[in-house]
Amino acid sequence: MKFLKFVLSITLLLLAAGGVYAHGVDEDTQTFLSGNSGVAFVPFLYIGAKHMLTGYDHLLFLVGVIFFLYRPKEVLLYVSFFTIGHSVTLLFGVLADMAINSYLIDAIIALSIVYKGFDNLGGFQRFFGHQPNTKAAVLIFGLFHGFGLASKLQELSFDREGLLVNLIGFNIGVEFGQFIALALVLFIISNWRRYPSFLKFSTLTNTLLMAAGFLLFGYQLVGYFNS
């Protein structure tokens, strides 16, 4: 029970951090990007890492993805599918200067959290008698998560000179932030699995994951209709 409280405390801290920094796009970051010109690989790498570490929707989805993965090979495989997906659309979305509505993209990202919680609860087999391809789902949702990252970057004003190099730096930073976040989540879940409370509270945890996804979905829709 003590370990469960520890897990919930860490989760609340992650969510609080995500809410405060709004995906890592704080005032200092906006000021830097507005005043920067040319190649700035290292600063963009830092911004990418901070963006992912404070991106609570991305982190919640990853928690759902790895929740029942026990073997390191499986974790690496699923995270690779997610990484490929969001890397492709992040680069393509910004380089092609696609007009992406961040509220709608974030609403889809919120639904990806709902999907993964529902999947972890065995909802597809129970209600539809069919299990979708989980690897394909992670890849597809990874594409939407990448568009979400691209939309946040496009909302900011920054110089287009050296854009490709800066984007590569940002993307590497995102992967670095993702690695740190996953290491923490894996540490917590791996230790939690040693306790009987893991299976006992797994249903509650994934139900809360779905509830968080629905909450974020509603929040984004309100933002869309009020914008």
Molecular structure report:
The protein is an all-alpha fold. It has one domain (40-226). The protein contains 10 helices and no strands. The protein has helices at residues 2-21, 27-35, 41-53, 56-66, 72-95, 102-120, 123-128, 134-154, 163-192, 197-226. The longest helix has 30 residues, at 163-192.
Brief summary:
The chain has 227 residues and is mainly alpha-helical.
Biggest pleated sheet: none
Write down the overall geometry: globular
Mean pLDDT comes to: 84
- Number of helical runs? 10
| Rounded radius of gyration (Å) | 18 Å
Beta-strand content estimate: under 5%
Helix content: over 70%
Structural class: mainly alpha
How many independent structural domains?
Answer: 1
Measured distance between first and last alpha carbons: 44 Å
Low-confidence segments, given as residue ranges, are 6-24
Beta strands, count: 0
Helix and strand run: HHHHHHHHHH
How do the helices and strands line up, and which of them pair or pack?
Elements: H1 2-21, H2 27-35, H3 41-53, H4 56-66, H5 72-95, H6 102-120, H7 123-128, H8 134-154, H9 163-192, H10 197-226
Please give a handful of descriptors for the protein shown.
227 residues, 81% helix
